Amino acid sequence: MAVTDEAIEKIKGMIVSGALRPGDRLPRESELAAELGLSRNSLREAVRALSLIRILDVRQGDGTYVTSLDPQLLLEAIGFVVDFHRDDTVLEFLAVRRVLEPAATAMASGRITDEELDSLDAQLAALGPEPSVEALVAADLEFHREIVRHCGNTVLCSLLDGLSGPTTRARVWRGLTQEDAVSRTLHEHRAILSALRDRDAEAARSWATVHIASVEMWLKSAL
Questions:
Q1: For the chain, which residues score pLDDT lower than 70?
Q2: Separation of alpha carbons 102 and 122, rounded Å
């Protein structure tokens, strides 16, 4: 493993130094191994590891390339990592969401269009006053994803998209066990939309905080 780590660091060094740039094809395996003073096996393991986190793209029959290194692409690896979370870490994911998502919602207030807000309003109306928990949670994920998409920061958007998965189970659990969870969620969504329509960044931030904190507080009491 230490040898593989060394190989990873050497490839990383080539990318950071600019010797390999986004879109570049890596030299042939035998040539690169000799250049870096590595065995072909350790180089192969390093390439496999770096491809998993979207640093390298292995194209069968064509070679290995440096990816675009776009933040959205690289941050997809977060989604892979957080899939392995334990139930007792859900509160930590919610706490991170509570810090980041209200900020993203406030940032979106000056960028999201009236037409896009109308679309979100229509989606809420289509749910009706008593949607199923599954329908509500699916709509909740899409509601926040759509708002955050307009925050103007692709890194923040990707981070939040990767963090949303681990809290889904908590939201379903809350919907099934807390008496007013459905009506409260709908009310908070409408309040967020109203603040966005008013272009009131601080009100949007506050309602997004209330919305996430309500799930967080319920989960603390339930655990």
A1: 1, 75-88, 165-178, 222-223
A2: 22
DSSP letters for 10-67: HHHHHHHHTSS-TTPBPPPHHHHHHHHT--HHHHHHHHHHHHHTTSEEEETTTEEEE-
Please state whether the predicted TM-score (pTM) of the whole model is above 0.90. no
Contacts of 90 (CB under 8 A, 6+ apart): 166, 167, 169, 170, 219
Q: Residue 40 corresponds to which tokens in the numbers above? A: 């072909």
Encoding tokens for residue 48? 């496999």
For 7-19, b/e burial (b = at least 16 CB within 10 A) is: bbebbeebbeeee
Whether 193 and 105 have beta carbons less than 8 Å apart is answered as no
The residue type at 165: G
Angle at 171 between CA 136 and CA 53, to 5 degrees: 105
Q: pLDDT tens across 123-139, in order?
A: 999 998 888 888 888 88
